[in-house]
Specification:
eight-stranded mixed β-sheet, Immunoglobulin-like, globular, five-stranded mixed β-sheet, 4 domains, Neutral Protease, domain 2, about 725 residues
């Protein structure tokens, strides 16, 4: 059996085709029992079957394999669950016949409180605390609910049956085909699913209300939430119905399932999860209260719903071959969610909000410790390390850059052919580049490899000389150090007007472009009386540095309101970053800020304010009144807003109180990280508190990605070599 241990992937001698899963959760004892029958194709001579399982107790007497064309039943002579590798090794003592057969396994498990696998979440109903049972399987936790081939390329169909208390709602990926009530329990059976990966299987059991609607082609859409909160589900329902119809046109393929359920879960580690046909959400990402939620919450609900529904095509119908391609799955869904939201709510000007995504990506990727967005994943245990802002935000930004360079129509056409070609199957990043290259005739693969396989990004410097523009690229590092990266940069620029736009690929270190044709004969003085803006609408993932003459022209364009809000934001953000990296003098940043005297656009103003290093302060009375609102409100969004403000005051005593409060039962584990935004004065307090409470924190958050947010929130604000050593 040792040959199967410490291996990154499962052996390939058995291929799963269909799972028949039966689960019986016990919500009061917080455990579950189950059986699974897996239709397998044995494709190589072996006496072993190796699949994934973790945190389960297997009933050895239940394990058997029945070949389809034989009455003989093979019983396992040895059953070993290797917890370290999360594999179940079954030894049948004799070679199994090639071809189709059924593997049966009985098992039991615990409904854990770690928000992964098959877990429990708590809620209140009529003043009584109750448990619900929920699944969260991405990236590699289906194995904590039932033994399976828990790799995205091992696609199969799933037939699910649940035995649950008869008064509860029980949901899965597919519609119910039969419900049999037998006293206090009922057996609920669901339609068999289309072919899909294990990480997309989902089950939710609890007490819920719902609102429902239909798309024009008859797909039933329901939003489930806690009893009494259905009015808060209506906005997301409306967004979902309209988004499904938009994506059907955009991807040129209809939604593949007969229904779509979306459900708000009180305890939920991520923002949301795109399970096929049953999308799970944090309450803050699905529920919107017309009376009390902020405008930002409305936008958040719209973009998250659009993100998860994009996955129903890009991720669920066409699935990444392995976790190395996770960035593409998430980066694409993030980008297209803005496209959809902009289509549904053009008045929001959501692309200016997208700048928050790209500037966050630029900030992180400007660090010497960054990583490429495409990281080779060897073992499933490494996946949580790359679920970060770089995979999501830089990923989304480079896709936007590519779409902008190739043109919207060409990009959409090529994408539709990619989805058609790989539907119900798996694909790699290179498969998408190949489709886009074929559709556009551009060197997409070569271009994109420079952005996905190396970390960092360039600053493109531009200066004017004899009616020519000289462009030069070098790696941008926020430390001001020299980097030796080089990219194929899709450069866009306009001169004096957005109508006069030009684009080219900067493939070398430097290049010169003649810009005479941009200036009419009447404007004999040429470039001096016009302005030039590089990286039009900030669609490129790079910074821009202008020479003094061009910088003066840009200030003139800002003062005279010739530039879009997006471009005004980008110029300020680039100048600030270059100034912090000691590539521009502080005086040039201050002069530039003077050009924003009459700025009215929210996104630009908020960036301007953050650049001005505003310090937030508070006192005991403010702290106590915020705490009172936290305890009184039933709105998750209000609670997270307050948590984010509590520790921002300079009083170190209050900071410590807040940190202890976030680990108390009053704060759900998933929300604790919001309370770690401490003031400058509170950093040392937070660091000491973190070390003192490490055992409790690491026990609560285990190996999931929330632990990385804890570490990052506490450690990232430090900026000294002494602290690096520590």
């Amino acid at each position: 059996m040792d040959q199967f241990k410490k291996q990154p992937r499962l052996p390939k001698f058995a291929i799963p085709k269909r799972y028949d899963i039966r689960l019986k959760p016990d919500l009061s004892a917080c455990k579950f029992a189950g059986t699974v029958s897996i239709d397998l194709d044995i494709v190589a001579g072996t006496r072993f079957i190796v699949l994934n399982a973790a945190d389960l107790s297997i009933n050895p007497g239940s394990v058997c394999f029945s070949p389809r064309n034989s009455s003989k039943v093979f019983e396992a002579s040895e059953v070993e669950l290797v917890e370290e590798d999360e594999i179940l090794v079954l030894d049948f003592a004799e070679t199994l016949p090639l071809g189709l057969g059924v593997l049966a396994i009985g098992f039991e498990g615990v409904l854990n409180d770690r928000m992964k696998g098959f877990y429990r979440s708590t809620y209140e109903h009529n003043g009584e605390k109750k448990n619900m049972a929920v699944t969260q399987f991405e990236p590699a936790d289906a194995r904590r609910c039932f033994p399976c081939w828990d790799e995205p390329a091992c696609k199969a169909t799933f037939k699910i049956t649940l035995d649950v208390p008869s008064e509860l709602v029980a949901l899965s990926n597919m519609p119910v085909v039969e419900e049999k009530v037998n006293g206090p329990l009922k057996t609920v059976s669901y339609q068999e699913s289309p072919i899909m990966s294990t990480y997309l299987v989902a089950v939710v059991v609890g007490l819920f209300d719902y609102v429902e609607d239909h798309t024009s082609d008859g797909i039933k859409v329901q939003v489930y939430c806690q009893v009494g909160k259905t009015t808060q589900g209506k906005f997301a329902l409306n967004v979902a119905v309209r988004t499904l119809e938009l994506y059907k046109e955009y991807f040129a393929v209809p939604y593949a399932l007969p229904k779509l359920d979306m459900i708000a879960i009180p305890d939920f580690a991520a923002g949301a999860m795109e399970n096929y046909g049953l999308v799970t959400y944090r309450e803050t990402a699905l529920l919107y209260d017309e009376q009390h939620s902020a405008a930002a919450n409305k936008q958040r609900v719209a973009t998250v719903v659009a993100h998860e529904l994009a996955h129903q095509w890009f991720g669920n119908l066409v699935t990444m071959e392995w976790w190395t391609h996770l960035w593409l799955n998430e980066g694409f869904a993030t980008w297209v969610s803005y496209l959809a939201t902009d289509y549904l709510f053009p008045e929001w000007k959501i692309w200016t909000q997208f700048l928050d995504e790209s500037t966050d990506g630029l900030r992180l990727d400007g660090l010497a410790e960054s990583h490429p967005i495409e990281v080779e994943i060897n073992h499933a245990g490494e996946i949580d390390e790359i679920f970060d802002a770089i995979s999501y935000r830089k990923g989304a930004s480079v896709i936007r850059m590519l779409q902008s360079y190739l043109g919207a129509e060409c990009f959409q056409r090529s994408l539709a052919s990619y989805i058609k070609k790989h539907a119900c199957s798996n694909a790699k990043t290179e498969d998408l580049w190949a489709a886009l290259e074929e559709g556009s005739g551009e060197p997409v693969n070569k271009l994109m490899n420079t952005w996905t396989k190396q970390k960092g990004y360039p600053v493109v410097s531009v200066k004017v000389k004899d009616q020519k523009l000289e462009f030069e690229q070098s790696q941008f590092l926020s430390s001001g150090c020299h980097g030796d990266g080089q990219w194929i940069v899709p450069v866009t620029f306009c001169c004096g007007s957005y109508d006069k736009k030009k684009s080219f690929l900067l493939q070398t270190k430097s290049e010169t472009h003649d810009v005479k044709e941009f200036f009419s004969d009447s404007n004999k003085s040429g470039i001096a009386h016009s302005w030039i803006k590089l990286n039009v609408d900030q669609t490129g993932f790079y910074r821009v540095k202008y020479d003094e003459e061009l910088a003066a022209r840009v200030r003139y364009a800002i003062e005279n309101k010739y530039l879009t809000a997006t471009d005004r934001f980008g110029i300020l953000d680039d100048s600030f970053a270059l100034c912090m990296a000691r590539q521009l003098p502080l005086t040039s940043l201050l002069t530039l800020m003077g050009a924003y005297r009459e700025e009215l656009e929210y996104t630009v103003l908020s960036n301007l304010i953050s650049v001005m290093q505003q310090v937030n302060s508070s006192d005991r009375a403010g702290f106590e009144s915020l705490l009172r609102v936290y305890r009184e409100t039933d709105l998750s969004q209000e609670k997270t807003r307050i948590l984010g403000s509590l520790a921002s005051c300079p009083d170190q005593g209050i900071v410590l109180e807040v940190l202890n409060f976030v680990l108390s039962p009053e704060v759900r584990s998933q929300d604790a990280v919001f309370g770690l935004a401490v003031s400058k004065e509170g950093r040392e307090v937070a660091w000491t508190w973190f070390k003192d409470n490490w055992d409790l924190i690491s026990k609560t958050y285990g190996s999931g990605f929330l632990i990385t947010r804890f570490v990052s929130a506490i450690v990232s604000p430090f900026a000294s070599f002494e602290k690096v050593k520590e």
